[in-house]
Design brief:
Layout: H1 7-15, H2 18-41, H3 44-52, H4 55-73, H5 83-105, E1 107-114, E2 120-133, E3 140-144, H6 147-150, E4 158-161, E5 168-200, E6 205-212, E7 220-223, E8 227-231, E9 243-250, E10 256-259, E11 268-270, E12 276-279, E13 282-285, H7 286-289, E14 294-296, E15 299-307, E16 310-313, E17 316-319, E18 328-335, E19 344-351, E20 354-361, E21 364-372, E22 376-378, E23 385-402, E24 413-421, E25 431-434, E26 438-443, E27 446-469, E28 483-489, E29 496-501, E30 507-509, H8 513-518, E31 522-530, E32 533-543, H9 547-566
Parallel strand pairs: 8-19
Antiparallel strand pairs: 1-2, 1-32, 2-3, 2-27, 4-5, 5-6, 5-23, 5-24, 7-8, 9-10, 9-18, 11-12, 12-13, 14-15, 15-18, 16-17, 19-20, 20-21, 22-23, 24-25, 26-27, 27-28, 28-29, 30-31, 31-32
Helix pairs in contact: 2-3, 2-4, 4-5, 5-9
Amino acid sequence: MIRKTTPLGRIIYFLGSLNFALLLLATIAVACALATIFESRFDTKVAQIYIYKAPWFVFWLGFLCVNLFCVTLTRLPWQKKHLGFVITHFGIIALLIGAVIGSKFGFEGNITLHKGEPPANRITTARSIVQLEGPKDGELYSLPFDAAAVRPSAKRPRGFAVPGTDWKIVADDYTPHLIRDPHLAERPGGSPAAILKMDSRMAGQRLAIPLKLGDPEMADADLFGLAKIRFREKLPAHEVPHERETQLVLANFAPVIRSEGAGSGIPIHLSKDGAELTVASETFARAEAMSRELTAGSAKIQVLEYWPDFVMKDGRPATRGDEPRNPAVLVRVDYEPAPARRELALELAPGEDGLDYQFVRDGRVVSAGRARVGEEFASGWMDWQIRVEEFAPSAEIRHEVRLPEAGEPETGIPGFRARLEPGGAPPGEPRWIESGRLTELAAGGDRVRIGYGLEVISVPFHLQLLNFEVPRYAGTETPSDYVSTIQFTDPATGKSRLGIAKMNHPASWPGGFWAVMTGFNYKFSQAEWNPRDLDETTLQVLYDPGWLLKWTGSLAICAGIALMFYWKPKKA
């Protein structure tokens, strides 16, 4: 029994006292109330940064665990009647420790996989970071920083120490709506480049699209999946493909059709007396039809031969007489096959003082022209208008990051404004640091590169998408499920296994009973899909090493409460 009169006993009884517990619980209750207000007025990240994941809150939860442990020590020596009390308190301790472990060492993120591409192992998490390039060693250093949550300002700037120096980077503004304007800079020996400006009042969008010949990242662009934009040396030729089929059309029997492809689908019928031929819904005199070429849409049809009384003789078609007892005709159909893929594209090539262009639909050129710098032309895609803003036969593309002007839609890239402050020297000019890119800050002759965005981590195994399916409800186009077949591989051992991720049915690695039970298991759930590309899937990734403690603690709490209220030990 721990005596209250000893120094250790006084400490244990104070830490396990009801007054100390009430102080801790009252503080946690106020903090949770403030977090709820932060979530409603701002977002969940703000509540996490200032409350749930703040060091002081974790420290306070640690004190609560100490209080719960000490209050069990004050009951020593434990008796049967204390069993439910002790189990409940240890359950709460396990639950809190598991929550802290999961928060600190686990993560939630996503990964996008494409069928046919090499295995990947980099997960984009939900945590925002700043990356600094050390000017002395060239290494990248990562620091947790969520500009959207902390909102740096001139009154409340945020600073970052530059590793290996006495320099400091100071952030003093934030916006979720940075605009990245591309511009051309003449460069001898460069390749042709252009800037297209696209505008749609219906969609409320204005876009600047940089194009540069020979650059894999800038030679092609995608207009929200609506259309493709391609920049090439010359406009590619598009020959309309043709396929041929023959139809042996009999008046009294079903036709015999042989086709090079999927078939034209054009119905052709011969009257019982062989005098009339019907092609699709139009009827012709058979004799007249044999003397000229018929058409049905883009298909060309020719009647090659006629047999009044058709019969096969020595393996070849023949007629037994001139009476139309079994008339038949041989018809040849030249047709354009249905396109293998549905696609809209704008193809451009350098021209005189501008660009030559052609619009392509399903592999066929539907219109073409030439646009000089400053000229505008219609796309035919909704109400999108296209203007050649800049063009140069030898240039490089540079970008200027700015805030939206009055009247411009507030859509863009999140980022913050920062400046470099070398020790003892005047600060440099502030620049906007946009998410997803490294930006150079300078002050005098000192320079450092800084980046901002979501943290990307590498997992110790590889994933490869083998197949992605979207089953539909019968008779509809409504998806009934999303099924990703994933191959997991451990590069260290070569061990490999397949996983199936469906709705409400995640795949996991390494899987197995013990990995799932302990929480040292990566779960991959179906998160998003691309209706325009069924070879692509996005999976949500969850790793929670505190899972076992949280569940064990929850079960212990339930068991302890049940023992306290429903189990009465027999008196000795």
